[in-house]
Design a protein that fits this description.
Length: 273
């Protein structure tokens, strides 16, 4: 049986790890290299490093930080934020990343998913999806520049946002997830902006809908506040991996305690050496 992965996320802003609530009210959480080494030694299965302001500031991901982290850890390492081209992906992989996460650029250039998965292999390409639930009776954000088959309709429940959650797109999150998978995405990193940092649990409804209709692995993100939330994302949402930040960065729980709890609930996890 395949083990379920536990993945701390390092959101980086101006060279520091930060954490917010629903992508706002950002506070400092430490040095990225020190935290990466700590999580590597603590038994994390992977790490995800997201330069959260690179796209909105129209700059490249900080490659020096990527190099420093990759030289000091031994677990798989995904990098995202400010990745716009095949060249950017190649630079990150050459700097030591095992995978690259693309989000805003994939929506601006839908061919990027297919091109990058063919060039580097789909195991290297993670498509990140930041989404919000569409309130009932809320006017839809129309976008005439997108494919009508991906556009939100009155039946849509979730909408995609880009540029670190700053811009609405008018794109249906479930439709886009299926499109990304069909274009060669090796994994999907799905983050609920409504639940992010709230510590009230993941968006189980979204995870459940997506997992029942898609074949690529799903990384659940946004909302972990207790160890039981990690369990629910897997047992109820059927995610293949759970990503968390606040509960680990601020010492609420350890990687070890999380894995013990998950294992006690019957979830197969990689044992800590």
């Amino acid at each position: 049986m395949l083990t379920k992965r536990l993945i701390p996320c390092l959101d980086i802003d101006k060279g520091r790890v930060v954490k917010g609530v629903s992508f706002e009210n950002i506070r400092d959480a430490g040095d990225p290299v020190e935290l990466a080494v700590f999580y590597d030694k603590s038994g994390a299965d992977e790490l995800i490093f997201l330069d959260i302001t690179a796209s909105s500031e129209e700059r490249n991901t900080m490659i020096d930080v990527v190099k420093n982290i990759s030289e000091k850890i031994f677990i798989p390492f995904t990098v995202g934020g400010g990745i716009r081209s095949i060249t950017d992906i190649q630079n990150m992989l050459e700097a030591g990343a095992d995978k690259v996460s693309i989000n805003t650029a994939a929506i601006k250039n839908e061919k990027l998913i297919n091109q990058s998965s063919k060039f580097f292999g789909n195991q290297c390409i993670v498509v990140a999806i930041d989404f919000k639930k569409i309130p009932p009776n809320n006017p839809l954000h129309k976008n005439d520049s997108i494919d009508p088959e991906l556009a939100i309709t009155t039946n849509s429940k979730w909408e995609i946002y880009t540029h670190g959650g700053r811009n609405s797109t008018g794109i249906d999150a479930i439709k886009w997830a299926h499109y990304a998978a069909s274009m060669g995405a090796g994994e999907l990193l799905v983050t609920s902006m409504d639940y992010d940092g709230q510590k009230s649990g993941y968006d189980i409804e979204f995870l459940n809908v997506l997992s029942k209709t898609i074949q690529v692995p799903i990384i659940a993100s946004g909302g972990a506040g207790t160890l039981e939330h990690l369990v629910e994302a897997i047992t109820l949402g059927h995610a293949d991996a759970v990503l968390a930040a606040s509960i680990f960065h601020f010492g609420i729980y350890s990687i070890e305690s999380a894995k013990i709890h998950m294992s006690n609930k019957g979830i197969p996890v990689r044992p800590i050496q």
